[in-house]
Design brief:
Blueprint (H helix, E strand, L loop, with lengths): L2 H14 L15 H13 L5 E5 L7 H14 L4 E5 L15 E3 L2 E3 L1
Parallel strand pairs: 1-2
Antiparallel strand pairs: 3-4
Length: 108
């Protein structure tokens, strides 16, 4: 990704994930919630075709989790999004297709 395009993408994602005011802060000094937001933004930076999300709701408030699900629902139209979640309720706002696994088998 060329420098100008990359910078625009960073700005877009930092606004989308509410971290634009913290880009200069060392990652280690950020709260766990901001670290989670930054990690999600970083995962989307290069527009991957497959996105793996482990425990989406870790350190993220309910309102922001809903916003992330909306973003990921939109992305799932043209890309594959794989979630790992112990709490199925976390994925209730996801509008893409879901295949649930239980102990390695497809569950109803």
């Amino acid at each position: 990704m060329a420098g100008g395009i990359l910078q625009r993408r960073i700005e877009e994602l930092s606004k989308m994930f509410g971290i634009s005011g913290h880009l200069d802060m060392p990652f280690q000094k950020c709260s766990s919630g901001y670290k989670q937001r930054a990690s999600l933004a970083r995962a989307l930076l290069h527009d991957p075709k497959i996105l793996l999300i482990d425990e989406l709701n870790k350190s993220i408030d309910t309102e922001f989790a809903a916003a992330i699900l909306a973003i990921l629902s939109e992305r799932s139209r043209n890309n594959t999004v794989v979630f790992s979640a112990h709490n199925q309720a976390v994925l209730n706002g996801f509008n893409g297709s879901l295949i649930k696994l239980n102990k390695g088998n497809i569950a109803g």
